[in-house]
Amino acid sequence: MGRTLENKKEIVADLKESLSVSTLALVIDYQGLTVAEITDLRRQLRPSGAICKVTKNTFMGIAIKDQEQWQPMSELLNGSSAFLLVKEDLSAIKAYQAFQKATKKTEIRGGVMEGRVLSEADVKALGDLPSKEQLMAQIAGAINGVATKLAVGINEVPSSLARALKAVAEKENGDSSESASESAVVSED
């Protein structure tokens, strides 16, 4: 027994809803994965907020038909497709890469982000980017380093001035001592 028209419309509506909150869509060839492995992939993606949809290319084609930013995905719709829909956290790519490395059964056909098709190399490059938390930590470290150097520099100005004044004072005292000893030598003559 096939799907009803209502059921098909629900699937397409669900895909449209998922795409509307996604910033990146990856198309993978999932042929050869078991249900348990797909479930494991979904479990690994969950912490990043990404989802894995296994659906017919026809349904995805209908879902992206009126959405300009997802139109380029149509060239990736062939064969057995699963769709990884990533909201914001690109760590989902790393989770998928770890899954792919462990199973060696899937391949990325490509992806779509901001209306552009991404190759497998592009997706790998995105996966290699540091996470949002890592970037924030790096920025905070850089800001802290600058603030520390600024504070040391500001503290160094009065210290340098004090050393310079002390040197001038010692030089003057030294000149006075030398003048006094010269005067003493002259008066003895």
Looking at this protein, list some descriptive labels.
189 residues, alpha+beta, 6 helices, 5 strands, disordered C terminus
Number of helices in the DSSP assignment: 6
- Helical percent range? 55-70%
Uncertain stretches: 183-187
Q: Which descriptor suits the 3D outline? A: elongated
Summing up helix and strand content along with how strands pair, one would put the structural category as: alpha+beta
Number of strand elements? 5
N-to-C order of helices and strands: HEHEHEHEEHH
The oligomeric state of the chains shown is: single chain
Strand content: 5-15%
Gyration radius from CA atoms, angstroms: 34 Å
Main sheet: strands, sense, barrel: 5 strands, antiparallel
Mean pLDDT: 82
Strand order of the largest sheet: 2-3-1-4-5
User: Could you give the distance between the termini?
Assistant: 131 Å
